[in-house]
Design a protein that fits this description.
By secondary structure, the protein is of the alpha+beta class. It is built from three helices and seven strands.
């Protein structure tokens, strides 16, 4: 909407197990969700003949879920954080210690409510900027990872 709240459409879904044994993923959803204020800004940028210069990352993030018993009919999934779903081998974030399965505690100093908030933080930046993450590894150690973002591929 015009308030900048997330709107989007799920593009597909595949079942998968969690990358992090301490968290349960009931499904992985490949989705596109873009805040409407970003869409408005980007469309105005394109119409004015300029290029869009959002940063990209050598890592992907997804929501993680825990499943609680609901009643005799099943379980209730509850979103419980954002995990690192993929890290490009040899990339800047990989070299700085970001790992698949890490739980994102902070993104640029704020606790992300979902993976879209991490994506928004990346999209607000340009190639070469730094995304500041605090993560909890599977061994329960915490680490600050300052990953350099990439310029978009043309």
């Amino acid at each position: 909407d015009d308030q900048g709240r997330i709107i989007g459409m799920n593009m597909g879904a595949v079942n998968g197990s969690a990358n992090a044994p301490h968290l349960v993923n009931i499904a992985r959803v490949i989705s596109l969700a873009v805040p409407s204020n970003t869409v408005l800004h980007d469309s105005q940028t394109i119409l004015s003949g300029q290029k869009i210069e959002h940063a990209e990352a050598d890592a992907q993030f997804e929501n993680s879920w825990e499943i609680s018993p609901a009643n005799t009919f099943g379980f209730i999934p509850k979103q419980c954080g954002v995990i690192v779903a993929r890290v490009v081998s040899g990339s800047d974030p990989a070299q700085k210690g970001l790992r698949v399965g890490d739980l994102v505690l902070l993104c640029d100093g704020l606790k992300p409510r979902d993976a879209n908030e991490v994506l928004e933080a990346i999209m607000r930046k340009r190639g070469g900027d730094i995304l500041h993450l605090t993560v909890r590894h599977e061994d329960n150690t915490e680490q600050n990872v300052n990953m350099q973002l990439l310029a978009p591929i043309e």
